[in-house]
Here is the input.
Amino acid sequence: MGYFLIRRTVGFVLTLLAVSVVVFAVMNVLPGDPALTILGLDATEDALDALREQLGLNQPLLTRYFLWIWNAVQGDFGISHSFRVPVSTLIGERLPMTISLAVAGMFFTLIIALTLGIGAAARHRKFGDWGVMLISQLGIAIPAFWLSILLVMLFAVKLRWLPPGGFAGWSDPVAAMRSLILPTISLALVQSAVLARVTRSSALEVMRQDFVRTARASGLSRRRVLWRHVLPNALVPIVTIVGMQFAALVTGTIVIENVFYLPGLGRLIFQSIANRDLPTVQALVMLFAAIVVTANFIVDLLYVVIDPRLKARA
Amino acid sequence: MSGHLKNSTLPILALTLGLGAFAANADTIRVGMQQEPTSLDPTTDATASIDSMLTMNVFESLTVVAENGEVKPNLATSWDVSEDGLTYTFQLASGVKFHDGSDFDAEDVLFSFNRAMAEDSVNPSKGIFKPIEKITAIDPQTVEIKLTNKDAFFLFNMGQGDSSIVAAETADTNNTNPIGTGPFKLDSWTRGDKLTLVKNTDYRDADAVALDKVEFRFISDAAAATAAMMAEELDAFPGFPAPELLPQFEADPRFRVNIGSTEGEVILAMNNAKPPFDNIEVRRAVSTAINREEIIEGAMYGQAVPIGSFYPPHGTAYVDLTGAYPHDTEKAKEMFTEAGVAGTTMTLRVPPFPYAMRSAEIIQAELSAAGIDAKVENVEWGFWLEEVYKKKNYDMTIIAHTSPNDMGNFARGPDYFYGYDDEKFTALWDAIRTEADPAKRDDLLKEGQQYLSDQAVHGFLFQMPLLGVFRTGVEGYWASSPVLYMPLKGVSNAG
Here is the structure.
């Protein structure tokens, strides 16, 4: 296990290092001048030069890369070019929003997908199974932004039950939760469609095994067999997909935050790329990469918990 | 487990049912903004929403431009101009205080302008300060500005966000905590979400300010903006992004739709420095091939006024030149053939704005009907600025020029992205910008429009409209905008 952790930590650092090179190279190769983006079409040459100097863009590329890495290791991600405040402040302001959204999205995804997936497996080749398959096919086909707009039209414009967007802030928890309901549903419905299908097929696979029949024969109820024996044994592929989906949820917030005008990281990265705000984009991409790598790491740990036989191989 | 879930979701649903959208307060207005600012300082960042939210509301300048384009007194209550037109003496308003309680006087004007003109200045319109030779504080209420050459737009330029008067103590933090002298002061700003202004009760004309509180919310997506208005989460969307979504507001008695004018000329820019557009006949052929009515119908859903040159139709010197190159596909075809470019490929690099992308598709079809294989390349804004604007690496593009008095673009020489270098026009522009007499200046501006149309420098398409959606009861917003700001001083909300 100790060896496993060391190997994973080294992998984590190497992955982030590779990401840092790629994101730095891409952002600097990409045509676009941050100074021109900030000062606009009427700016004079000397004002643009003065701003480039202020932003440190006149230094050689390699110097800038190593300065960035050196400072980042010490926890300093630099000053945002367009906001002119520390990038860590920007991320700190927005992280709670995006994490709330992603965690709530994951929570509802799991509940919807496991219930529907196991339910469909239990009613294999019956009406309920077909129903779940049909709905999940629709869920996969519908783009999240379109679903969001439909939900807003119905629940915010027509029925007026929920706000059409914006985030009220956690100082008023009820208002905050109300503003998170529609974005969470939009995220969760699409994701759970995929997961429900994986759950169903994985459960069906397990249900064909001898030990399930034995469990039934020993007198356990169908429901008990499903939740106590089938689900735990079907978890490995489900957890794999959940790990991938958590990463997709975090990046999916980019779309959802724009449609529901929520002040989260997704909207920040979208705006920062357009503004050529290099320090902000670099830090955010690194953060997203770290989240994805961490999610994969947790999935690997969960494998061992779910199936102790894998411990030997780890 | 599923039973447990049901029990916890019910109270949440009940809460959502019980609490509808809160009723609008008469002294408050909730305003939607499409563009989200990253800084709140109009003197160091060109983002248009900084001007539309803060200029003349939080920050003030020596002069102010009225809705009809007239220059009026502001922090300067009056001014004298010397015989030779080179010395301006401004009398400053007395008893004015900044929002932090400090006094406004001549030193603040000196500081603001010296900062804008300094070597390390990052003022987005540093050029407007170029004619200034020297600024002197005669006394705390009087400032004298000497110019090196006459500048007809000087007083107009002194009424822009770029020339806002700021205090030395707070200038460096204005990007997050703007301190000005205006009728409103900053209450709070949640980056990416909303910005709230409250009435400045110490304002010298506080009685004329109807609103106590203004809440700006940033909504970039047009469908989300529509939903927010429809759900009555907003009272006003003064710069509504999507003309195609206006009919549903026009049909709804809860709303009033305004279609006004702006200073934004939308052009099909041609790279005059590069073949084939260095040939005037090719440019004229392009102007003949395009059909403005069709472009306005398709790109703006009919909500725009066509232009035939580079001057806004609401201006005092406007000449209608839209008939200079009547749309005629057959004639355009002949002209392209004569110039030897028929059948060639031309690239149209388009920035990511709906008006530009939609216009591009229609223009592509029109050029193709006239025998030109136009390829549309949709590029991202940063790419456009670098490749098209800075490196002039393009054949044609579509862009709105939103600044007022910007005919001088055509006198910016070969380094500007037009690639247009014409001594005759440069001399004409010099005459325009130094002509102090408004009537004579208008005559010269007419000449300028005529000349640019005659040279067919670009395809002149339409004037960018100002589209606004307001809840009935919201009054006092400008119908048209001669500048980038939108003063809230006269705005009221009957709720």
